[in-house]
Amino acid sequence: MKNIVNVKNLNLTYNANSIKPYHALKDINLQVTEGDFVAIMGPSGSGKSSFLNVLASLQAPSSGSVLIDEQNIWQLNANQLAKFRGQKLGFIFQEYNLIESLSVADNIALPLSLAKAKHTTITDAVNQVATLLHLKDQLKKFPNELSGGQKQRVAAARALVHQPKLIFGDEPTGALDSANAREMMNYLNKINIEQHISILMVTHDAFSASFANKIHFLSDGQIVQTLERSNQSRETFYRAILDFLGTFEE
Ligand SMILES: Nc1ncnc2c1ncn2[C@@H]1O[C@H](COP(=O)(O)OP(=O)(O)OP(=O)(O)O)[C@@H](O)[C@H]1O
């Protein structure tokens, strides 16, 4: 099976040229198989956001390589990287990052509008994802007229509308109550299975992580453990995650 993500000997040092450099990521190696749903967990300060930012092409590493869909992203120039991101990647952040002055439909359409897709292509794609994420009745509204759960679904629809190969999530349920978090995770699960889009998300929440099929635990900038769901039910996997966290975070 093809790797959608292949990370080799990745290091990130903040303030590298100062008297107090900080090694946030230490020689990380990681492969994500196409179609996988992967979660990254770890204590506060362990390097989760730094890792996600390097993988998502938002922060340059100090050394090592990140291949996404077989492309070494840090060898691309700024224009190529922007194009690559626009075609292959989708992003869902905790803060939604919706544009308040645009309607829900226009927010969802953003990746396609930026790529200058045809009007009919955009309308069809927006309708398709709005149906998948139960947003058909919200398309004409503006973000300030939506609930938190609806806003997060709009962010998910926007991440999905251009059929990316890979979606990055940074605490995608962080701002949601438990009912909305469950609903969001069910949607991500559906996107992963039905659209065959790989997902890599950072979360501190064991419940959200239990929807993934693999979890990597970061500690002090290194992957120290990996749990695989295999054929366990989500509930059993959830308990296994909690058991592991009980020993891990002491
Ligand atoms: N711009 C920066 N300059 C210097 N150090 C930084 C910078 N950004 C992060 N760090 C440090 O790198 C380490 C990892 O930070 P990171 O935000 O990746 O952790 P995290 O696991 O996502 O934490 P949290 O769960 O609290 O968000 C922390 O010790 C942090 O203080």
Automatic annotation (TrEMBL):
Which top-level group of life is the source organism from?
Bacteria
Q: Which UniProt keywords apply?
A: Amino-acid transport, ATP-binding, Nucleotide-binding, Transport
Per the database record, which ranges form the ABC transporter domain?
7-245
One term under GO cellular component: membrane protein complex
One GO BP on record is: amino acid transport
Q: Mind telling me which Pfam families this protein's record contains? A: ABC_tran
| Family annotation (CDD domains) | ABC_MJ0796_LolCDE_FtsE
Work out whether the entry's keyword set contains Disulfide bond: no
Cleavable signal peptide: none
Which GO terms label this protein's molecular function in UniProt?
ATP binding; ATP hydrolysis activity; transmembrane transporter activity
UniProt similarity note? Belongs to the ABC transporter superfamily.
Q: Which PANTHER family match?
A: ALPHA-D-RIBOSE 1-METHYLPHOSPHONATE 5-TRIPHOSPHATE SYNTHASE SUBUNIT PHNL, LIPOPROTEIN-RELEASING SYSTEM ATP-BINDING PROTEIN LOLD
Protein name as annotated: ABC transporter ATP-binding protein
Phylogenetic classification of the source organism = Bacteria, Bacillati, Bacillota, Bacilli, Lactobacillales
